[in-house]
Amino acid sequence: MHTPLTEPPAEAGADSLEDQKAAITRLGHELRTLVETTVRTAASPDTLHRVADGVRQVTAQLTGRRRARAEIPEVDGFPGGPRMYSPVVGAGSPLAPPVSITPTDDGLIGHCTLGLAHEGPPGYGHGGMSAMLLDELMGQACTAAGTPGMTVSLQMRYHQPIPLETPLRILGRVTGTDNRKVFVTGTITTEADPSTRLVSADGVFIAPDPDRARALFPGLREEA
Ligand SMILES: CCCCCCCCCCCCCCCC(=O)SCCNC(=O)CCNC(=O)[C@H](O)C(C)(C)COP(=O)(O)OP(=O)(O)OC[C@H]1O[C@@H](n2cnc3c(N)ncnc32)[C@H](O)[C@@H]1OP(=O)(O)O
């Protein structure tokens, strides 16, 4: 018998939340492997049909309660906490590379490696993927600076293509604020050559006023 993987425990204490995060992370890893293998495979149509049937059966095992659209998962913190299903940093998301983030003296640094699932031009990263990586790092830099905000403007510059299967470094840094506006810059380089910018961005983020934030995010917890 299969245990439903998305059903939260009846009483989620600290230990059970950790168990839940570990299980989400493990499933996310297996799904990313499946996605990457899927976009690389040269398997025959018979094999692809057989695998599709198997995947459909696996999906049917994810029974139990489904999260509502604006619900913030119990395993997450918003804003400023973990986002297990984020398409950029979420350990549980098959869409995420995922990016791991650490603070620096004046911003945040993210690390990830893109695979063929993130391909734009053959062998290189999709430009939308670069924008997504930078938007996240720059948005999280706002939160880390104590001014969480939403992107209202993201000016991208693509200097060189981003190689796949190559460790990357993404920087996000707040350069200034003006009332609710936060000005942020970001760059993507390889880990091996952090002085050569492959992509850079300038962004404006805006902290919604409290009423707007409550209306936009009805699942926001009071302490946030
Ligand atoms: C507890 C709180 C949670 C907070 C939030 C946390 C989110 C943490 C996300 C984490 C994950 C990260 C992920 C990556 C970040 C996304 O991806 S965010 C998603 C993409 N962005 C969006 O969907 C934002 C859509 N835009 C909006 O909803 C509304 O514009 C906002 C952001 C709520 C602001 O609305 P508003 O408060 O009515 O703003 P408004 O009064 O029109 O403008 C305020 C000021 O900004 C200026 N402004 C407006 N647009 C622009 C622009 N494009 N360029 C320059 N200035 C502009 C205005 O001129 C105005 O300036 P002043 O007149 O005050 O000098």
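^ Palmitoyl-CoA complex. The chain has one domain: 1-224. The first strand starts at residue 100 and ends at 104.
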